[in-house]
Task: inverse folding
């Protein structure tokens, strides 16, 4: 992709008017931004550095790879230090304390900028879609150079150029978009696996969630563009992809020629060289029989499904606007397990939602015991300004919530340990991801069920799928031994 873009950049005349059509317009600004970075680098007498910090979900992590790709293309060298010449925060706003974390770190960046006046600071992502946040930034943090949101991340190079040419901060927030721009630079964190956006936005409006307000309405990428991207990734060494969307089960509904998520998976499965397919997140309300059938017959879809429950109480689920009942969820799990018996199920659970009674909480525990999740992300409900739930009465006292959370966590962890132990002694394929951080004689990888495995190995195994005997289960990970056969 970078070589192709570089070839196009050589043909661009910066004296001409910027193109209107995308992505050619962004290629023009990539080249123009590079010119400004080269000039700044000459004045500084060294290459300029850039540091990207990501808050939040895997969608944000993928967006940050796009930011990194653009920064590299225009001439910045990647840095892990926030004393870099360009620092950008890709923000999350699912919980309000995430916003406070960003404000706190901006104070530190301001001190760095005083030492290096040429330093540029950028803020993007979900937090920037909140008008109150932008107003606060304008008043209290005027040293921030770039502010943009979730809908126009593809304009990053253009916004950098605007900042250089105007000499003052640039704020460019869109309320909504139906535009998806393909073929822009991207720098992957891992050479052997990659996230792939298949859609953007969310139409679900769960009563506790801010995401639909900051990510906008659902819009799906063209399946041909998705296939083309994955084919290029595989040609570049990727063996595993994670298909990303706020609700992948809704994929394709906004296309001119609708395509189901199951149909997309069938096409992705055909890609030679691709070994593993993961996806998240799946909303229980529209996980189809067709999708279950595709998962049952697939040779490449990992036997792991993240299926958020949130609450086991049908009464609370209705107030949450989740559009399914406890009984429907359990019936769905039965269908999935009948089709894929060895599947690993994980979930999200919220404790202390407004109005939750002890009986409601016990319903959640009941589902946990019946489903027996391999792991669960457990959350204490926190008010999120701008959501319907934040205005609800019957907010639960913190001491009650804490007690329920501790009981739930204890149950989840006990079941998870028992479930993990089920494959002890088996020989299973492991995708090696890294040298172990605590012991460099070990490497660490993942089973298709997403459990970690540590075993003796060297860094040349990274990115390879190897057979490993799972010698000992240690709760949430395995110690294994590579099979030489």
Result:
């Amino acid at each position: 992709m970078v070589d192709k873009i570089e070839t196009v950049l050589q043909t661009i005349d910066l004296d001409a008017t910027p193109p209107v059509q995308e992505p050619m317009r962004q290629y023009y600004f990539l080249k123009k931004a590079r010119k400004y970075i080269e000039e700044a680098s000459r004045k500084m007498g060294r290459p300029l550095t850039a540091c990207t910090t990501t808050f939040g979900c895997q969608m944000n992590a993928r967006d940050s790879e796009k930011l990194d790709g653009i920064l590299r293309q225009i001439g910045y060298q990647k840095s892990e230090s926030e004393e870099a010449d360009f620092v950008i925060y890709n923000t999350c706003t699912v919980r309000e304390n995430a916003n406070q974390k960003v404000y706190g770190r901006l104070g530190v960046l301001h001190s760095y900028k005083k030492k290096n006046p040429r330093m540029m600071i950028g803020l993007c992502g979900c937090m920037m879609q909140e008008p109150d946040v932008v107003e606060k930034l304008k008043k209290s943090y005027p040293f921030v150079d770039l502010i943009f949101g979730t809908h126009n991340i593809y304009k990053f190079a253009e916004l950098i150029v605007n900042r250089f040419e105007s000499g003052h901060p640039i704020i460019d927030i869109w309320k909504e978009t139906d535009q998806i721009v393909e073929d822009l630079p991207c720098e992957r964190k891992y050479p052997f696996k990659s996230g792939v956006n298949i859609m953007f936005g969310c139409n679900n409006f769960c009563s506790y969630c801010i995401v639909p307000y900051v990510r906008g309405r659902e819009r799906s990428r063209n399946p041909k563009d998705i296939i083309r991207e994955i084919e290029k990734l595989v040609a570049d060494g990727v063996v595993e992809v994670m298909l990303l969307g706020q609700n992948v089960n809704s994929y394709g509904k906004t296309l001119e020629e609708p395509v189901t998520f199951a149909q997309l998976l069938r096409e992705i499965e055909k890609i030679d060289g691709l070994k593993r397919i993961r996806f998240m997140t799946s909303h229980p309300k529209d996980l189809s029989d067709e999708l279950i059938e595709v998962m049952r017959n697939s040779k490449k879809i990992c036997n792991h499904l993240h299926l958020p429950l949130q609450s086991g109480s049908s009464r609370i689920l209705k107030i949450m606007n989740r559009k399914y009942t406890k009984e429907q969820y359990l019936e769905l799990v039965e269908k999935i397990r009948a089709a894929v018996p060895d599947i690993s199920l994980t979930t999200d659970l919220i404790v202390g939602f407004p109005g939750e009674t002890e009986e409601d909480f016990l319903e959640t525990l009941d589902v946990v015991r019946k489903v027996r999740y391999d792991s669960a992300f457990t959350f204490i409900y926190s008010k999120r300004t701008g959501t319907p739930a934040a205005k609800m009465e019957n907010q639960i006292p913190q001491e009650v919530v804490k007690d329920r959370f501790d009981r739930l966590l204890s149950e989840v962890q006990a079941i998870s340990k028992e479930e993990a132990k089920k494959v002890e002694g088996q020989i299973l394929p492991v995708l090696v991801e890294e040298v172990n951080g605590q012991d460099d004689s070990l490497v660490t990888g993942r089973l298709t069920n997403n459990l970690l495995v540590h075993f003796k190995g060297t860094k040349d195994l990274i990115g390879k799928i190897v057979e490993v005997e799972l010698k000992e289960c240690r709760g949430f990970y395995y110690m294994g031994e590579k099979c030489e056969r």
In short: The chain has a mean pLDDT of 95. The longest strand covers residues 427-435. Residues 398-420 form the longest helix (23 residues). Residues 237 and 254 are 31 Å apart (CA to CA).
